[in-house]
Specification:
Strand content: 5-15%
Order of helices and strands: HEHEHHEEHEHEEEHEHHHHEHEEEEHEE
Bound molecules: nicotinamide-adenine-dinucleotide
Largest sheet: 9 strands, mixed
Oligomer: single chain
Shape: elongated
Number of strands: 16
Helix content: 25-40%
Structural class: alpha/beta
């Protein structure tokens, strides 16, 4: 394989081999000869693969989900915001998908974008990363570059990924490490994904890419590889520093969202409109960044990632109190929503038990087709538990089946005849909804997102 890539075999066995292999790879990236593997063709991996094909790289997407592989190879898409036409363009530019790991040997750069969820005890579940590492290792060759993008605790790349790759490859290869030159080296780095789904104000290539290599040459390679598709690359000193950077960003969001959620609860008691207050505070040109309250945290990142750090912190007898407190407040928000619905119905002399409730929007945030960890799921379950007759509408989900933590088996109801419901509950403020019309046609609207801002009506309860 190395011969077919034009890399003389002798280079692998000389002491300066590590540097030579890295400059070979740099040249291959610059000339677009380098072959890029993206492992995990989900919300992160697929857009990344498309960015590389746009820049004329030949990309192979690896996934264990055969349906995704088949869909991509047939020119189709399974992510709403990526059109089949984009996939077809990428396919003619060299994108292919496979579940066949031996093809890893043909790749130059291997970027891992697999899930990192929590298990039932709220602990990191690294099984997707370890399974990927076990699958890659037997096909690893000198000079290849492996980058982990999955969000995880500091130390994962060095303590979990690298040992599997080193112990299970067939050629006695070692990862290139700081200060050590290795003749049979592969390169390793961590680079966090920073995508903000649904955000159309920042182009993906304008989001600076943080990279931390296990070795200076690996950082250099990461800067070259990502520099091909991102406008700015930010280097940090190690994979652990890059892992921690991502967690800091998400913990910052999680804690600040908890803060405004708590202040919202207080404001409601005090008769103040928290959104008005946040908007006013946001006019300060320095020292304040607005965060907005909601019905609870959702998505694959903010509700999950902070607990990766709290778990790891215990190894140092350290208790991450801000994370725990933020978690407590945010996890409590769906219960606040239920209490608000109960209160609103009660003021109309109705019980929740037996009431017809329409949940509007179930995605975890506006205008996206992602249901993971959505607070709407908890809210629907809690409403049903209290005896409500629950229907839902969401433009992105014709049905809600079974997930890791729920099994609702519901079909979307048409957005019509809203007067039949005792309560219309806005959980996700999709922009295609006509809120004035919804208020006009409904008997009672409970709004968890301030979607009805500016609509003055006795029927609206903001919570
Ligand atoms: N979705 C986001 O907005 C976002 C943003 C920043 C960071 N992240 C992080 O990126 C990582 C991936 O998230 P995602 O949203 O793309 O997840 P996803 O579930 O959408 O995609 C992951 C893909 O990996 C595949 N997969 C699982 N195990 C595999 C294996 N052994 N080999 C090959 N494929 C495998 C799955 O089939 C799936 O298609 C996570 O760590 C997440 O925390 C996600």
């Amino acid at each position: 394989m190395l011969r077919s890539l034009g890399i003389p075999f002798e280079i692998m066995t000389t002491p300066a081999a590590s540097a030579t292999l890295s400059s070979q790879l740099t040249a291959r990236i610059a000339s677009r000869q380098a072959r890029v593997a993206v492992i995990g063709m989900g919300y992160v991996g697929l857009p990344l693969a498309l960015l590389y094909t746009e820049e004329k790289f030949r990309v192979t997407g690896f996934d264990v989900d055969q349906r995704k592989v088949d869909t991509l190879n047939a020119g189709g898409s399974y992510i709403f915001r990526i059109s089949p036409e984009e996939i077809q363009r990428a396919r003619s530019g060299g994108l292919t998908a496979t579940s066949n790991y031996p093809q890893i040997a043909e790749m130059d750069a291997i970027i891992i974008c697999v899930p990192t969820p929590l298990n039932e005890y709220h602990e990191p579940d690294l099984s997707y990363i370890t399974n990927t590492a076990h699958a890659i290792a037997p096909h690893l060759r000198a000079g290849q570059f492996v980058i982990l993008e999955s969000t995880t605790y500091p130390g994962t790349t060095e303590e979990v990924l690298v040992p599997i790759l080193e112990n299970e490859n067939r050629n006695g290869l070692k990862a290139a490490r700081k200060g050590q030159s290795s003749e049979n080296a592969f390169y390793v780095a961590f680079s966090p994904e920073r995508e903000d789904p649904g955000n159309t104000s920042v182009a993906r290539r304008d989001i600076p890419k943080v990279v931390g290599g296990l070795d200076p040459l690996a950082s250099e390679l990461a800067a070259v590889l990502y520099g091909a598709i991102f406008n700015r690359v930010v280097r940090v000193s190690s994979p652990a520093a890059a892992e921690m950077t991502k967690l800091l960003e998400n913990i910052y969001r999680c804690v600040n969202i908890a803060l405004v959620n708590e202040l919202k609860l207080l404001s409601l008691r005090m008769g103040l409109d928290i959104w008005e207050v946040i908007d006013a505070a946001a006019t300060k040109p320095f020292g304040f960044q607005p965060f907005y309250p909601g019905p609870g945290l959702g998505g694959h990142c903010i509700p999950v990632d902070p607990f990766y750090l709290s778990w790891k912190a215990k190894e140092w007898d350290f208790h991450t109190r801000f994370i725990e407190l933020a978690g407590e407040i945010n996890i409590g928000m769906p219960y606040h929503v239920i209490a608000s619905v109960v209160g609103a119905l009660n003021r109309r002399k109705k019980a929740l038990n037996g009431s017809r409730v329409l949940v509007l929007g179930v995605a975890y945030k506006r205008d996206i087709d992602d249901l993971r960890e959505s607070p709407a799921l908890t809210i629907i379950e809690l409403l049903q538990k209290e005896g409500a007759e629950v229907s839902y509408h969401d433009p992105f989900f014709p049905m809600i089946g079974k997930g890791r933590k729920y099994d609702l088996q519901m079909k979307r109801t048409p957005l019509e005849n809203l007067g039949q419901y005792d309560c219309v509950l806005i959980v996700t403020d999709h922009s295609e909804y006509d809120y004035p019309k919804i208020v006009q046609e409904s008997r009672l609207v409970v709004d968890t997102r301030n979607a009805t801002k500016g609509i003055e009506s006795e029927k609206v309860v903001r919570c």
